[in-house]
Amino acid sequence: MVHFRFPIDQLPSALQDFASEMETIVDQVFHKSESKDENGAQTSESCEANVSFTPPMDIYETELQYNVYMDLPGVKPDAVKIEIQDERLVVSGTRDAAVQGQKLSVHRQERTAGKFSRSLRLPKKLDAEKIEARFDNGVLHVVLPKQAKPIPRTIEIKTTSL
């Protein structure tokens, strides 16, 4: 994972999202591992080489929560994994090819199958225990509730009498 020298959490929230996306892109492009093929030749393989596509994602904020929507048409709910890792929400999974195991002559193939992964930096003030996810008509909706704001109160000072 690439980490910027400047603390991202000090940026305005819109820039935090942009910086988080840039981290993901840099990770996918530059973090490569060296391995050898069956002939012993050096090959360079990206850590994200198994990621076939990047599903579109929208993030909305309300007074009480953040809402993350991800378009995952053709993905079965049990093929999606949602995790919290290092203050990041990570959504990954697999979309199976529509046609498998048949000898075909492909005229056009625009729909991508395979693995996907998206991650975003989580705001610090979330109630992580109450995060929920729903999957409906190919759209994943993750609800990230904000922590309740502390209620201001006056503290009574007690004295001890001798």
Set down the secondary structure blueprint.
Elements: H1 13-30, E1 32-36, E2 42-46, E3 51-53, E4 57-61, E5 65-71, E6 80-85, E7 88-95, E8 114-121, E9 132-136, E10 139-145
Parallel strand pairs: 3-8
Antiparallel strand pairs: 1-2, 4-5, 5-10, 6-7, 7-8, 9-10
What can you tell me about this protein's structure?
By secondary structure, this protein is mainly beta. It has two domains: 1-49, no CATH class; 50-98 and 112-148, Immunoglobulin-like (Sandwich). It has one helix and ten strands. The strands form three sheets. The chain has a four-stranded mixed beta sheet. A four-stranded antiparallel beta sheet has the order 4-5-10-9, with no helix packed on it. A hairpin with a 2-residue loop joins strand 9 (132-136) and strand 10. The longest helix has 18 residues, at 13-30. The protein is elongated.
Name the poorly predicted regions: 31-49
Global shape: elongated
Tell me the distance between the termini.
Answer: 62 Å
Give the helices and strands as they follow along the chain. HEEEEEEEEEE
Alpha carbon gyration radius: 22 Å
Question: What is the CATH architecture annotation of the largest domain?
Answer: Sandwich
Q: What is the percent of helical residues?
A: 10-25%
Q: Determine the mean pLDDT.
A: 77
CATH topology of the largest domain: Immunoglobulin-like
Tell me the strand order in the biggest sheet.
Answer: 3-8-7-6
Strand content: 35-45%
What is the total domain count? Answer: 2
Largest sheet: 4 strands, mixed
- Let me know the number of strands: 10
